[in-house]
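This section describes the prediction task in plain terms. A model, or a person checking by hand, is given the sequence of a single protein chain and must write out its three-dimensional structure as a string of tokens. No templates, partner chains or ligands are provided. The sample shown here is typical of the held-out split.
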Amino acid sequence: MFHHARPVTKTSRRPQGARADFVYGGGKRRRLRPAFVVALASALSLAVLPVWSLTHSESSNTAGAGTGAIRFRFTVPSSIDATGSTDVTSALQRFVNLTPDHSELDFRAGARYRIEGTLHLNERNDMAIDGKGATFFATQPTRDRNRSQWSFNNDSNLDVANMTIRGANVNAGQTDGAYVQDLEAQHGIEVTGGEHIGIHNLDIADTYGDFIYISRSAGPVYGHPQDVHIHDNLMERNGRMGITVADGARVAIDHNTINETRRSTIDLEPYSPSGVVRDISIIANRIGPGRLNFVSGQGAGDVSSIIVALNTLTGHGMGIDLLGPNGSTRYGVIVVGNTSDTQVASTRGSVMRFVNYEDVNVRDNVQPTPSNRQMAMVSAVTSCNVEVVGNDLSPGGIGQIRTDHPRSTCTPAPPPPTRPANYFDGQQLTLDVGNTTDSSTQCSDKWHCDGYLTATDAPTHVVTAPVINPTASKADRTMLMGNMDFSVPMKNGNYSVTMTFVEPVFKRLSQRRINVDAERVRVLNAIDPFEIAHGTNRVARRTFHISVGDGALDMHLNSGSVLAVLSYITITRD
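The expected answer:
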């Protein structure tokens, strides 16, 4: 078993240019062939994710890449038992529920929180959970199959760090008694749906289920998890897989120590034909003893674009088994520069197996095999374009690759989905519908609004008299007039939308009534800019909240025969 200092403090963010400079194999750097270094670097640039660690402070600040701001900071009340004597699941859950989005939750250093239930964080945005080295532990297995210690559902921009998690599995490890089918979903950390999630500097042990489990949720907003970074954790002794990705895209698993797993160390396994596990990087981890494979990838859906690189395995073979369903094709696997010190002798006659895969590259790995077994590095079954070179199988080994029913032709991998040039993936977008400024997205041709505006009535550009509001901008008094449709391609999520109107003509109530529909829901009903602003040439604003789950925010404005007016739209991610 590995011995590793318990991670209880935050690590500094790695320099951007240092991520491919890994040390492995007892601290010795392995020299890779120059041409392949270029290819690997190119592949890693697509698959290895940035660190989404939130920056914490007492005041408002901006979090790491791809995240929003942390504006508030809350410390767990001292009234909640931190000695471990009583079950504080309900008390801690109330504390979590009362905190707003954009918050850091600080636990007490050295505290022991007894958690016989599950702590949930559901549909939250811009949240940091700092355990400060506290321990969250269970003493009873309970009969709840799904009782994980922490559960995160449909969260966006989440950072979880610096805590110890202990399950209730007293038999955890490699023994037969470690696996209990009725309790196999009691994970240390469960993530269902969500995006931009960092999990780091945790010490997880003694779970009936996986250390970390990632899957899809039923919700339309963040249903398929994406951009998850699991790094610098210590995980040892459990009852099932080490880390499972049952659904997810762009998941990075790097610089972790994983020991004593009852089943496969890393499991990539969609549980339905619509499941997708793509763009997964498993890099520079320290893998200790465990049963079954190092990496497994079966299941009913797609498991493609996988990188397994520069991992060090001690007391564990490098078994990798990726099997696509009959009649399917999966694409893209790189396995390079991994080192094991433990001999592998599989009944299938190879260290790794790929079934129904195209574009596989396995090279420069060190995996001992016994001299009395006929072991190859790779078995390629109904696969295509599989390159296996430079792997060290001493003292045994009969060759690099076995092939079985090779495909006669290779079909090119489908291109990744492309986003429109005007795709909104940030925190705030302003559409200057009246087209008067250079600092926001303008409706420069009065018709298409840089691709966001489609209209059944050709809108008229209107300039009012100077607005009365002393703080109003020039944009407030310029507008389009017409019944307008907008479609803004954007990341799924929750948004606040503020529309600005000025009544340019009418001098009494109810002359212009504007209806606004968003995502096929009436969000503003028969609003009158004159009534809201108490007069002509006065600024009126209205804000509504909307969830986007189909990749675009669709909005329709209609005001009947007198036509709607609109100055600009501000869209802010909640």
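For orientation: DSSP finds three helices and 45 strands in the chain.
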